[in-house]
């Protein structure tokens, strides 16, 4: 007999009324499904605990950090948990981003940021007009260069995410209209909570001396830097952004619909391709992955989205005639669709199926 999917089991935890009676009856009498359901409930409690905030106005940054720390330290239900320190910029944070829940939600977290206006001495070298998935293994992802080893990273305008009372307030705060959902998927009920984010930007300054030390620590010799790269600066920006969030009652959103000005990059003179190719030459990535990253970003308009082969699957789609990328966790618990139009990125994500997020996306007003 066919067992209900993991997504159905998760919906049984979040929104029992959204599960068909036949599935209810099967799960109630199936020991295998009961065992899996226990694990799903454990994961839901873990996420809810990590996100819980005891202040009147939720601290989204703190909640996200607690969630990342919990997931990075966690293991499947019933197995021992290895307690390792987690930092936003360290290996623990990268570990958290490899989990399917965080990988999808990270796309929404991007919507909480905003773009800083480029100063007169900054040249725009990259502007996101489309997104392309790059499938990569967990082992290869760890080979991507950590920028902090090759220079100095400075958060010049930190993200400030806050709850706002309604869609109009979100629009007034961020300057973007909140997408309106035509019809909620089954199991998603009630009114959404609205969030808006202020500007965020970061600067990176290449340092030949710092990169040489990092290479020596790893037992390698640093290749010569291209002329002009040492001391060059780059600014990365994203946003502003707004989001509508439907809670599931378990501390993890059932549906998130968000929109933001797409990411962009600026340089004080060095071409984007020069910095990109140098970093890729240091990373030890397989040639096919490095070639994809070079090819996708060669036009200065396509942003690659890393899709963890062990955790996620991706598929092309379209939303209103615009190319889109659908991401689905391998356990079928979470799905998201993301696309870019006129310099604005939109994401629909949640504890839904790929068909459900696409239906929501195509019905947005």
How would you sum up this structure, described in words?
With 365 residues, this protein is α+β, with helices and mostly antiparallel strands. It has a domain at 113-362. Helices cover 34% and strands 27% of the residues. The chain has twelve helices and 15 strands. It has helices spanning 6-14, 21-28, 31-51, 60-73, 91-97, 100-110, 138-141, 167-174, 208-217, 272-283, 287-297, 354-362, and strands spanning 123-127, 130-136, 151-157, 161-164, 193-197, 200-206, 233-238, 241-247, 253-261, 264-267, 302-308, 312-319, 322-329, 335-341, 344-350. An eight-stranded antiparallel sheet has the order 4-5-8-9-15-14-13-12, with helices on both faces. The chain has a five-stranded antiparallel sheet with strand order 1-10-7-6-3. Strands 2-11 form a two-stranded parallel sheet. Helix 1 (6-14) crosses helix 3 (31-51), helix 3 (31-51) packs across helix 4 and helix 4 (60-73) crosses helix 5 (91-97). Mean pLDDT is 75; it is low at 46-120.
Topology at a glance:
Blueprint: H1 6-14, H2 21-28, H3 31-51, H4 60-73, H5 91-97, H6 100-110, E1 123-127, E2 130-136, H7 138-141, E3 151-157, E4 161-164, H8 167-174, E5 193-197, E6 200-206, H9 208-217, E7 233-238, E8 241-247, E9 253-261, E10 264-267, H10 272-283, H11 287-297, E11 302-308, E12 312-319, E13 322-329, E14 335-341, E15 344-350, H12 354-362
Parallel strand pairs: 2-11
Antiparallel strand pairs: 1-10, 3-6, 4-5, 5-8, 6-7, 7-10, 8-9, 9-15, 12-13, 13-14, 14-15
Helix pairs in contact: 1-3, 3-4, 4-5
